[in-house]
Amino acid sequence: MTTREILPHESIAPAALDHLTTKHADVVSEVKAAIDKSPIVVVGMAQNPHVKQVRKALTEAGFQFSYLEYGSYFSKWGERLAIKIWSGWRTFPQVFVNGVLLGGEDLTKAAIADGKLREMLKSTPVN
After folding, report:
1. pTM score, two decimals?
2. Residue 74: what pLDDT?
3. Which one of 4, 61, 64, 104 is at 20 to 30 Å from 112 when CA atoms are compared?
4. Which domain covers residue 52, as residue numbers?
5. Would 2 be classed as within a structural domain?
6. pLDDT at 21 over 70
7. Residue 54 falls within a domain, yes or no?
8. What end-to-end distance do the CA atoms of the chain give, in Å?
9. What is the CATH number of the domain that holds 57?
10. What is the rounded average pLDDT of the residues 83-99?
11. What values do phi and psi take at 101, rounded to 5?
């Protein structure tokens, strides 16, 4: 598998790096705080069917989780972009288990089905 390169901070002008790291920092801090407090966190947005489906799958499988919602297709795109830049995951939902980004709907449903989500919950949280 070929991995996608990430632009190193040394290759970003100081003003641009400041913009990347400070824009909507409060939103990223809110997500990080939720991840520190809850074993399972779903970050999503209104009107997104994948967010609704992953929440339904977790609920039906008996998992409790915290849910953070940032706007819809028509609002709060900047806040969601800050979360995407921080996590490196380009879509919603973003599901975190014990501080680890599990992925979106497809990977979460697969982890529920094969028991990996339960295994992840038994591991020590990453903080």
Report:
1. 0.92
2. 93
3. 4
4. 14-121
5. no
6. yes
7. yes
8. 28
9. 3.40.30.10
10. 96
11. -70, 115
